[in-house]
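pasting for ref
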Amino acid sequence: MRSHIESFLQYMTVEKRMSANTRQAYASDLTQYASTLTQLGVEEWNEVTRSHIVKHIEELSQAGRASSSLRRAVSSIRMFHHHLKMTGVTTTDPSLYLESPKAEKQLPDTWSQTEVERLLDSVPTSDPLSLRDRAMLELLYGTGMRVSELLGLDLDDLQFELGYLQCEGKGERARIIPVSSVAQSSVERYIQQARNGLGGRETEALFLNGRGGRLSRQGFWKMIKRRAKLAGIDKEITPHVLRHSFATHLLENGADLRAIQQMLGHADLATTQVYTHVNKSRLHDVYRKHHPRA
């Protein structure tokens, strides 16, 4: 059974250009799914019924999985069973008409402009790694890129003489993003004073680790947590906190929602509209805090 999971992942990677992160998530979902089926006594994919799938989703829910995680698991299972039927491994698709759990409306975590400035200003520029960290954080907040997009940047992606950079987003969709003068200055300083000292002559990758290779997501995650702690910011940190803060602060200062959508690389405007809810939430907070009869 597990060999079919690997075949499906290979197909999605090659034919559908599934990203490495999505592949890892699907692999985890389907491996868990196969383990549940084994515990239920299922030995062949043709033996799977809708009740088996429902039982698996119920177990994930009882284990405390978030609705977004449950929805992804359902999506993984649907696509997998569709693939099994299309390739002749099974004769039926037990996931047909399977309903996804309703999505919880969660507002993105954002920081205030003061908190973002405190984080950025707290990073020194006295050594190569600090110059790198400052450049990454300035660029994230200055462009709203995803962390994966930031770490995937090469030197050739920078078009600073024209005031923008190019990055590859989800689905390998390339987009152009304007870069602020502050972020541009910070990146240029990193390139001129620090990158070669980290082994930058051997690679086209923009942001490097201490061994001269491309910085990983794990490396970035450790860095931003450490920098936030040093800045005295005692709040929950997510990998996209600066991306969400970028969009929220633009909207608060009058930016057009369509322009924000293009800069974030959202395929659907509805995805960007969540930031209007963040604005409304903050308005309510201000009202309750300052109105004498709130």
